[in-house]
Design goal:
Layout lengths: L4 E6 L3 H12 L1 H8 L3 E7 L15 E3 L13 E4 L6 H12 L3 E4 L2 H17 L4 E2 L10 H8 L4 E8 L2 H13 L3 H10 L8 H4 L2 H15 L9 E2 L7 H10 L1 E12 L2 E12 L11 E9 L2 E8 L3 H16 L26 E11 L4 H11 L4 E6 L7 E8 L2 E2 H13 L8 E5 L3
Parallel strand pairs: 1-2, 1-4, 2-3, 4-5, 5-6, 8-10, 10-17
Antiparallel strand pairs: 7-9, 7-11, 9-10, 11-12, 13-15, 13-16, 13-17, 14-15
The chain binds NADP nicotinamide-adenine-dinucleotide phosphate.
Length: 430
């Protein structure tokens, strides 16, 4: 038998403890698939005395995670601390410099430092794997980098944040507003005490940055992603979406266009005919469009100890089998410096909701503004009349461009009969 793989794990929280548990529970089948025993020999976390629900007997404890990189008995370092900076970054860089293989679930680290880490890995001939960083248990990295490697990818779109999807699903099912569902999700542990990374779309953008780099063979480019979160999604918009045959989802979308690669994260109206409309609760899903493969849809649990550990250990088995590829599928020197498309060049249809004073001439004023910006309408909805009170007017546009829409929104907001900032939600066919 070949030499066992000796593993050091930094971070023994939800994912780290999950990895230890899964290695223990499925030891025999994992060893058979790896071809060699996978032995965790060293670990690091902050609090040595904390009960993690799994025995750490016989494992070397490092107070400083960085020292795993310098432990000569460790072949593979698994970083499960988190954060784009600090101990996670220090450890990953040190391990790659030491020529050790690294596995991480840390999307923030890759979104911000992926290019540097890919160069380090290449320079020091170290493997760098991150299946668990995007969509938890869904093997999307392997699908894009290997399974679909013969395709030209046109678009990747998905639901990458379970917290947001859970909140939007519950708002719809129980007709509740955003703040109520968020507070309850926090009380139940589905949302962090500081939920801003999730609900403001940053976590989705981290994952999209990674997928866009893999899909289009270009360097990781987090900075060019347009990011909007779900704080402004209202129960009223969700009800109108239902009426019009859509679901509102927080999507991450990367698409090749003639003007460059478009990468954006925002709430979107998804038609019921599209697979992403039916992904509810904490689930994640990804839709890939490739040539010649066509549409490929993957769905599953995007977080949690078990699904994330499943992806970490898949990486470990690949390393044990010596299945290695460059971090982004192609060598750094072969990545293409494809331009990013500025968001104001985005083209698509829009859902608009305006709260207006119900008085004669309002609709004519609104449609005049849209006409001035060459935005044409597909449909309009207005319910209930109550004299001198705010009533919602919903407009669905034909395909237009973002620049025109922003200019129209700025003018609509100045109309005397428009009582609050208009809501605009992009309509996706994904
Ligand atoms: N949770 C998920 O479902 C999920 C899914 C996909 C990806 N991820 C990613 O996986 C990573 C870990 O997430 P998690 O949810 O497992 O986090 P977590 O539960 O907060 O665990 C973090 C671990 O890191 C340790 N740690 C923190 N600072 C440290 C330091 N300075 N030195 C040594 N250890 C330190 C903590 O030690 P103590 O335990 O002693 O405090 C803890 O064990 C993150 O990058 C996250 O984005 C998580």
């Amino acid at each position: 038998m070949t030499k066992p793989l000796s593993i050091g794990i930094a971070g023994l929280g939800t994912v780290g403890a999950g990895v230890l548990r899964l290695l223990h529970d499925n030891a025999a089948l994992i060893a058979a698939r790896a071809g060699v025993p996978l032995n965790v020999t060293a670990v690091s976390a902050r609090d040595r005395s904390r009960d993690r629900g799994i025995s750490l007997d016989g494992l070397r404890w490092h107070d400083n995670p960085d020292s795993l990189a310098h432990d000569p008995a460790v072949d593979v370092v698994i970083e499960l601390i988190g954060g784009a900076e600090g101990p996670a970054r220090t450890l990953v860089e040190a391990a790659l410099r030491a020529g050790k293989s690294v596995i991480t679930a840390n999307k923030a680290l890759i979104a911000h430092h992926g290019n540097h880490l890919a160069t380090l890995a290449e320079t020091h001939q170290a493997a760098f794997r991150f299946e668990s960083a995007v969509a938890g248990g869904i093997p999307i990295i392997k699908a894009l980098r290997e399974g679909l490697a013969a395709n030209r990818i046109d678009a990747v779109a998905g639901i990458f944040n379970g917290t947001c999807n859970y909140i939007l699903s519950r708002m719809r099912a129980e007709k509740l507003d955003f703040a109520t569902v968020l507070a309850d999700a926090q009380a139940q542990g589905y949302a962090e005490a500081d939920p801003s990374f999730d609900i403001d779309g940053v976590d989705t953008a981290h994952k999209l940055a990674i997928l866009a780099a893999l899909a289009f063979g270009r360097p990781v480019d987090f900075a060019s992603i347009h990011v909007e979160g779900i704080r402004r999604v209202s129960a009223l918009d969700i009800a109108f979406a239902d009426e019009l045959g859509y679901r509102i989802k927080l999507l991450g979308i990367a698409r090749a266009t003639d003007a460059g690669i478009e990468t954006r994260v925002h709430p979107a109206m998804v038609p019921l005919s599209a697979p992403l409309a039916h992904v509810d609760g904490v689930n994640n899903a990804v839709v890939i469009n490739g040539d010649p493969v066509g549409e490929v849809v993957l769905q599953g649990r995007g977080a949690g100890a078990g699904p994330t550990a499943s992806a970490v250990i898949a990486d470990l088995i690949d390393l044990a089998r010596n299945r290695t590829t460059p971090m982004l599928g192609v060598a750094q020197a072969d990545l293409a410096a494809l331009p990013s498309m500025p968001m104001d060049q985005h083209r698509g249809a829009y859902f608009l909701r305006l709260m207006v004073q119900d008085q004669p001439g309002v609709i004519a004023d609104i449609t005049a503004v849209l006409r001035d910006h060459t935005i044409s309408l597909e449909s309009m909805l207005q319910h209930g009349r109550s004299a001198n009170q705010a009533v919602p007017v919903v407009l669905v546009t034909h395909i237009t461009n973002e620049h025109a829409m922003r200019a129209a929104l700025a003018r609509l907001e100045t109309l005397a009969a428009v009582l609050e900032s208009p809501t605009a939600i992009r309509i996706e066919s994904a």
